[in-house]
Amino acid sequence: MAAWAAENIDLGLGLGHIEPLVLGPAVVPDITDPADAEQETELAVLSAVAHGNGPNGLTVIQAALVALGRLDQEHAMVYFQLIWNGLREPMRRALEALVMERQIEGEATLPPFVQRLIDRGKLEGLREGKLEGLREGKLEGKRGTLLRLLARTGIVLTESESARIQACTDIATLDRWIDNVFGAKTATEVLS
After folding, report:
1. What whole-number distance in Å separates Cα of residue 174 and Cα of residue 60?
2. I need a labelling partner for 169 at 20 to 30 A (CA). Which of 5, 21, 86, 123 fits?
3. Nearest to 146, CA basis, from 118, 167, 130
4. Residue 146: in which H helix or E strand, if any?
5. Cα distance between residue 177 and residue 155, in whole Å
6. pLDDT in tens, 146-190
7. Contact in structure between 89 and 134 (CB atoms under 8 Å)
8. pLDDT greater at residue 18 or residue 120
């Protein structure tokens, strides 16, 4: 795309031509040294955008992250978002894995803004985990109630019927089965 955009544009009628100045991946250097990245932060960001998906992608991104760690949080977040938006899914996963690996190893080499992103992600994960835990607890409660009611009414379950109840993850279905217990004589009537 950059080569095409850099082609001369003939204005026609003998008026001359325009030579566009194009900034493409071939013109942007691979900034892999964190010291170089700190001296030229914006160039390091451009390098990460241009080469982040390439063979040295993770090294280029790491150098840019080191440089971003020296900026105030607002600028660092904007630049990080530019880098993130330029990454394809495999490199995003590799970057996430690298960040998580450093977290596990306890390395303090991540810029503060990245640490804040991680902490925010942990909070969101905790919230999601709590909600999932509440839902699973509610399902277990419904299953337990259904099994106790069946036992009290003397309805005997086959192994497959018991497994079907344990495998059910729909609260509305479990509620319907609990309501069906009243007046039912067989497990088939309950689980209909």
Report:
1. 53
2. 123
3. 167
4. helix 112-152
5. 13
6. 998 898 889 999 999 999 999 999 888 998 999 898 888 999 999
7. no
8. 18
CA distances in angstroms from 189 to 11, 176, 180, 185, listed in the order given: 83, 11, 7, 7
Instruction: Write out the two tokens for 180.
Output: 């069906």
Q: Angle, to 10 degrees, between the axis of helix 73-86 and the axis of helix 57-68? A: 170
pTM of the model: 0.52
* Backbone phi, psi, residue 9, to 5°: -110, 115
Nearest residue to 137 (alpha-carbon basis) of 175, 162, 169, 164: 169
d(CA 54, CA 38): 21
Angle among Cα 72, 103, 49 to the nearest 5 degrees reads: 50
Which DSSP string do the residues of 56-89 spell out, in sequence order?
Answer: THHHHHHHHHHHHTTS-HHHHHHHHHHHHHH--H
Q: How far apart are CA 114 and CA 61, in angstroms?
A: 13
Give the integer Cα–Cα distance in Å for 22 and 24: 6
